[in-house]
Write a structure and sequence with these properties.
Rossmann fold; Nucleotidyltransferase, domain 5; alpha/beta; disordered N terminus; 8-stranded mixed β-sheet
């Protein structure tokens, strides 16, 4: 490592950042587009960056955060506040800052977790912090506190399109500028109507002050992203390998690639369920049968044979919260194999309602399941636009209310994020996957079917005739003849 950079001599200037990085003896650790972003921040108070996913832009700003918070006040030092929607993102940012602090040899305390109090709401928000000998700190929060209003410092709002109430947090963040601070807004897109996209449009149209920067995956690759990854993974870079790597990345995003990698916002209003709500619903105990408590369960089954996945998702209700207890995922499985797994689920759990996709090939599957388990337990749901919107809305409400728990699994989260809100021909809300009405996010729909079953569970009615009598009790009141209904749940 090169000579230390004592905080007392640091100047908060981008060229110092680059010189310091080169001084580590490993060349330019920041790629050209990362350096361009940091240089641009020096000349403006508000910087908005449209970016591809996983290109290391957050990592670059972690370096800037360390040199900003690590400098003394007379050298331009300031407090840094990092905000995003996901706890893991905030932890990763603090870890990156700790790495940079060690690399720069800047005196700092170990990072630690604490509760940050939102002054306006009086809520306590989980946060991470690194304190520096300069007297400043980097604070990373997985929420949108309003207490940044009136503060002096650098605010970094990461994946802004997905934070809760982006308009409010941006309004509060802009107030930092009045006190000599700076605001950086980083994000991939989440629909044309998202406030992040509107912010980009307004700045480009000079309706708001600030600067914008767009960095697509193609831009990052042209600036050495693939070669840098090969350096880290100890692989030999090649032109053919670069093409295959990009193809694999694009194939993994499918129809989302234009928005996620090329910075082209999709038509519509963005994700049906907020990524922040999805992250909050993830739990390490969800998706594991061993945590089943023997309570009442609701099952959703999305049926497929070849192209899509066949998914069976049982949810147990515990104190008003639906916990996913298992997730059976099959591809290109014979209907007999699928039936075997469904029968096992019906045996292993105390199921009081199972909802199955009855559309197309599901017709025969639903009939067979009803013959085996009874129509009182198995319901077929035709996926008409109205039915899809209904169960998707019920599922969305569960996430917003915090009354659902799903596995902390990347495939699960990707499925839930792939459902978008769009406008139909009449302007009425519709939902689609990846901006297309033909999409089918199988894990999402299995969960939606289960939630729909939980909203309208089957109830059995038993009828008992009134014993022959005069129809009058001893009190002389005529209570009538006929039947009295007794309602119970299987």
């Amino acid at each position: 490592m090169s000579a230390a950079l004592p905080f007392s001599k640091l100047e908060v200037d981008t060229e110092v950042v680059f010189d310091a990085i080169k001084g580590l003896g490993r060349g330019d650790l920041l790629l050209t587009y990362q350096q361009k972003a940091l240089r641009l921040l020096d000349s403006v108070s508000v910087l908005v960056i449209e970016k591809s996913r996983r290109i290391g832009m957050t990592w670059a700003f972690a370096a800037k955060a360390v040199l900003t918070a690590g400098a003394r006040r007379d050298a331009g030092g300031k407090k840094v506040m990092y905000i995003s929607y996901d706890k893991e993102m905030t932890r990763e940012f603090i870890d990156a800052c700790a790495m940079w602090a060690k690399a720069f040899d800047i005196a700092a305390e170990d990072s630690h977790e604490f509760l940050f109090k939102d002054g306006r709401k009086g809520e306590e928000i989980q946060a991470f912090r690194i304190k520096f000998a300069s007297g400043f700190a980097i604070v990373a929060l997985s929420s949108t506190p309003r207490t940044i209003r009136g503060k002096q410092g650098l605010v970094i709002l990461d994946e802004a399109a997905f934070v809760d109430d982006i308009a409010a947090i941006l309004k509060a963040a802009m107030a930092v500028i009045m006190w000599g601070g700076k605001v950086v807004v980083l994000s991939t897109h989440d629909g044309e109507a998202n406030h992040f996209n509107q912010l980009v449009i307004d700045i480009n149209a000079e309706k708001r002050k600030g600067a914008t920067l767009k960095v697509t995956l193609a831009d990052a690759l042209a600036n050495g992203l693939y070669e840098r990854i090969c350096l880290i993974t100890d692989e030999e870079p090649s032109s053919c390998g670069k093409q295959l790597w990009e193809k694999d990345i694009r194939d993994s995003y499918g129809e989302d690639a234009a928005e996620e990698l090329d910075c082209i916002p999709s038509a519509g209003a963005g994700s049906w369920i907020s990524p922040a709500d999805i992250a909050a619903a993830c739990h390490s105990e969800a998706g594991h049968p061993r945590y089943y408590q023997g309570g009442l369960c609701y099952v959703g089954r999305d049926i497929a044979r070849r192209k899509d996945l066949s998914v069976i998702s049982p949810f147990e209700e515990v104190d008003g919260v639906l916990w996913q207890r298992e997730q059976v995922v099959m591809k290109n499985a014979r209907f007999s194999e699928q039936a075997t797994e469904f029968d096992r689920i019906m045996r292993d759990y105390n199921v009081i309602r199972a909802a199955l996709d009855q559309t197309g090939m599901g017709e025969a599957v639903v009939e067979a399941a009803q013959e085996e388990h009874g129509e009182h337990l198995v319901e077929g749901v035709l996926f008409t636009p109205g039915a899809r919107l209904n169960i998707a809305t019920l599922l969305k409400k569960r996430f917003e209310d915090g009354t659902i728990r799903i596995p902390d699994d990347d495939n699960v989260k990707a499925d839930f994020r792939s459902i978008k809100k769009i406008s139909g021909g009449t302007g009425a809300p519709r939902i689609a996957e990846d901006g297309s009405s033909d999409g089918h996010a199988d894990r999402f729909w299995a969960a939606a079917l289960a939630v729909g079953a939980a909203e309208n569970p089957y109830q059995r009615f038993e009828y008992r005739p009134v014993p022959p009598s005069s129809g009058r009790d001893d009190d002389g009141v005529d209570h009538g003849r006929g039947i009295r209904g007794h309602q119970g749940v299987l």
